[in-house]
Amino acid sequence: MWAPGYDRSPRSSMSESPSTASNTEPVSSTAYRDCLRHLAGGVSIVTTKHGDITHGMTASAVVSVSAEPPLVAVVIDRGHSINPLLEGDDACFAVSILAEEQRELADRFAFLKDGDRFLRGTWEHAETGSPVLADSLAWLDCRVSARQPAGSHTIFVGSVVASQVRRPDVSPLLYWNRAYRALSAD
Ligand SMILES: Cc1cc2nc3c(=O)[nH]c(=O)nc-3n(C[C@H](O)[C@H](O)[C@H](O)COP(=O)(O)O)c2cc1C
User: Which pTM was predicted?
Assistant: First the structure.
């Protein structure tokens, strides 16, 4: 399960020997995590609406796929409760891109297990019905157009049916090296 900041593996030094793999063996998951924690990413909340149920979770694995046609992908652990809501022909999701001051909301949508995550923040409904955060930097509203199982996760590709930039001049919330970060000044 994806667990930012909860990887208890020893931290690598700068000059650690390269992790190698034979033709048949992948590198260890520890070596994999030690590398990937250096990949900085924006933080978003991925939401969906399925019948009467709405759900949302924090995600950094949100990938721009294609502008023509507009496609975006989210990579989600198969153990997460949003998965069954993203099945079916009419499945949809929205991505709300968080601003740097929205760390508490990111934590809420990652760690609150009992209770309504949507009780904080101002939420609106996009075209598909998926909730979008009113003061996000920008949001994308999507219909699920493809699903690809990948290891412990599923890649959900969304066809973007609506989008809006809300706060073009505000800095994003970043996640890097197991912690939230802000952009430093130039
Ligand atoms: C900064 C951050 C980024 C995250 N990114 C992802 C991600 O891209 N994919 C994923 O499956 N889980 C990710 N998670 C973990 C989920 O948000 C978290 O496990 C959440 O509780 C899952 O929702 P659920 O409890 O409803 O199953 C991230 C958590 C944090 C704090």
Answer: 0.91
For β-strands 153-165 and 138-150, DSSP reports them as antiparallel
96 close to ligand 1 (CB < 6 Angstrom) = no
Could you read off the pLDDT of 10-49 as tens digits, one per residue? 344 455 677 765 567 899 999 999 999 999 999 999 999 9
Q: Is the CB of 41 under 6 A from ligand 1?
A: no
Chain position carrying tokens 């949100």: 62
Contact 130, 148 (CB under 8 A): no
Is 173's C-beta closer than 6 angstroms to any atom of ligand 1?
no
Q: Walk me through the domains of the chain, giving residue ranges and CATH numbers.
A: 42-178 (2.30.110.10)
Atom of ligand 1 nearest to the CA of 106: 31
CA distance 29 to 60: 19
Six token digits for residue 54: 């709405």
Rounded distance from Cα 58 to ligand 1 centre (Å):
5
Summarize pLDDT for 70-117 with one digit per residue, the tens. Answer: 999 999 999 999 999 999 999 999 999 999 999 999 999 999 999 999
